[in-house]
Amino acid sequence: MVFEQVTKMGHEQVVFVHDRETGLRAIIAVHNSTLGKVQPTGVRASLGGTRRRVYQNEEAALNDVLRLSEGMTYKSAAAELDLGGAKSVVLLNSKDEEKNPTEREAVALGKAIERLSGRYVAAEDMNVTEQYVDWMAEVTKYVIGGKTRAKGGDPSPYTAQGVVNGIKGGLAYANGSSDLKGVSIAIQGLGSVGEKVAKIVAAEGATIIITDTRKEKVDEVVAETGGTAVNPDDILAVECDVLCPCAIGQVINDDTIGGLRSRIVAPGANNVLDKPLEHAAELKKRGVVYCPDFINNAGGVIRLGGLYIGMSEQQINDKIDRIEPRLIEILKNAESMESTYHAAYAYAQERIDAAVERGQAGPSAEGRVGSSKTPQTIGGL
Ligand code: NAD
Question: What is the pLDDT of residue 78?
Fold first, then answer.
């Protein structure tokens, strides 16, 4: 079963990790390293966060790591980063472990990552903090996003700036101007990304409508920005120029898609479309401009990936600025395609194909992304 799936999706390497001393169970998946910068060890680097969580069963964990690593190949390729796509998951036994990571566990995972000689570079994802990254960094140099041993830190300010650039790209495409003055923007979720997006766009003159399940956070952001609060259940159907979901995935689904009343959807969250290709096509039919999430929210991966491969702060910021013109290009390309999602994947695939043509093939079958050309999940960072 594993080989059937891996062959279909085109993964280069899947490693099952068991550490006898700590009981760690983890899976590391390197999807496609074609675009990865060559490490001093001679292998190409692929980046993707580490996700720690309780899974229903082993199959669910394997599916998660395979799909998320495939998504990272496309996310980095579309962001024009010299990195392949990978991911790791840690299979936990209890909810309590999710919130209480230990140094022992992180070190055990770090050792497994080190053994891959740089093929896989880890970073934050669900239940992985800067501290966890720094613990891994005690035993491996193939991590990014820590505070002390590993560099990078919290990527969310960069993600948020990228999302704002994406919003501007959507506006420039739809209205001919990226000016935020007087534009109404509805933001779902005021966490690390959403709160920052709210403050930036409000400072640039947008009218914001906001929500979060944490009422105290909503009150705080209303006080600071003058935004209007609505109930979490009402945000998706708010009439506005731009809807910016920054909370959780799959919020645009069969039940909610018909109620949207925004002209543009520009997400910060990953996987906001429950069925990405289908729902993106549906949005196109309804005349909604959908800015694909993995193009819009790539600021974090550009920051951490860029630092890892040695880009300067200036180069990183320039690349985050590129999100706006890239989106406009993708949205234009999408006019002759089924949806903006199809156009975004095609944009990423072109870069991978061009690298293969240059002879820069990774060790996967012909160095190409696997046969499932249109992955449905983009996760992390
Ligand atoms: P976070 O946990 O800090 O924030 C999420 C916020 O959403 C919280 O304030 C939570 O209370 C709120 N929320 C949850 N469910 C809600 C609901 N139903 N209605 C309204 N509010 C709700 O997470 P984050 O780091 O800000 O990330 C948000 C999303 O962006 C995630 O999908 C994440 O994968 C994605 N993302 C984050 C980064 C990053 O740099 N942090 C990068 C790329 C993508």
Answer: 97
